[in-house]
Every structure is written in structure tokens, then in C-alpha cells.
Amino acid sequence: MNTISVWLKSKSEGTWLLQKRSEKNRSFPFVCQPTWAGKVEAGEAIEDAVRRECEEELGKDFCANFNFSSLMMVKKTHYARDERMWEVYNFMGLVDDELLEKVVLCDESFPEFIRADASVEISL
Questions:
Q1: Distance CA 121, CA 92 (A)
Q2: What span, in angstroms and rounded, lies between the C-alpha atoms of 88 and 93?
Q3: Series of mean pLDDT values for 10-residue runs along the chain (124 residues)
Q4: At residue 53, what are phi and psi to the nearest 5 degrees?
């Protein structure tokens, strides 16, 4: 099983943009997570999963205007859970604040990003 996580930082503010899961989310409500994340479907390329999850979680308008080539894969981790091996592909990138105005977060998260100060260390 593979998953992707994308961590974006605001270019102007330098803050990390995190989603906070709502009470509607069946798994881990109220937990903060990367800007967007999700499972890679069987037979799906990692890059396709990054785009699909972006559209599902941030909306079509943001996805259509985001520069995916600006993302850098910073770490690939492996772990075992429920007797399965998992690979997590972590990407980081910068985003213009004007583009953030196009974000429509999914129903399973709070309607706005949590902004974490750039001094907060994100350990992948």
C-alpha cells in the first residue's frame, strides 16, 4: 500500500498550510494533517495520486492552477501496519497566496487551513 502527503508553505507568510479534519471525518477527527494526503489506488502512478488527491481535497480550480512540477519529493518512508507494508511519499512545495483563494476544502475538513509558523519543525 502507498500513500502520498503534500506539505505546502505560503510564499508570502512562510507558514505551513495544514488541514484539520472535521468531526465528519470517520478516522482521526480533529487531527491536523498535511495540506493534502491520501492513498494511492492500485495501479495508479504516484504523480497521478498527488493530482487526484489535490482535486478531491482542495477543489478543481486550485488543482487546475497549481504548478505540480514545483513539488519536490523529500522523503519516502516505509512502515508496517496491520501486517501490511506501507510506503509514504512526502512532497514539499511553495504556493502563492493568490492561488490559495481558489481552495475549497473538502467536507471532511474544517473550511480553512491551519497555518503553522515556519519555525515549527516538520519531521517526516
A1: 13
A2: 17
A3: 95 93 82 93 97 97 97 94 92 96 92 86 66
A4: -65, -35
Is 2-116 CATH 3.90.550.10? no
Cell of 50: 498527488
DSSP string, 54-114: HHHHH-HHHHHH--GGG-EEEEEEEEEETTEEEEEEEEEEEE-HHHHTT----TTB-SS-E
117 contacts: CB under 8 Å, gap ≥ 6: 15, 16
Which three-class secondary structure state does DSSP give residue 49? Answer: helix
Closest Cα to residue 49, out of 36, 39, 58? 39
Residues 33, 37, 42, CA angle at the centre, nearest 5°?
Answer: 150
Based on C-alpha coordinates, what's the Rg of the chain?
A: 14
pTM for the model stands at: 0.89
Q: Which three cell numbers stand for residue 79?
A: 512502515
User: What residue spans define the domains of the chain?
Assistant: 2-116
